[in-house]
Amino acid sequence: MAVLKKTVSYIKLMKPSIMLLVLLTGATALVLEGGLLRQGDPVSGASRFILILLALTLTGGSANAFNMYFEREIDARMARTRNRRPLPLGQLKPSHALAFAITIGAAGVVIFAMFYNLLSAALALATILFYSLFYTLYLKPRTPYNIVIGGAAGSMAPVIAWAATSGRIGIIPIILFMIIFLWTPPHFWALALYLRKDYELVHYPMMPVVRGDLSTKRQILLYVVFLVIFSAACVFEGAGALYAAVAVVAGAIFIRKSFQILRSESNASARALFGYSIIYLFAIFTGLIVDAILKMAL
Question: In terms of pTM, does the model score above 0.90?
Answer without folding.
Answer: yes
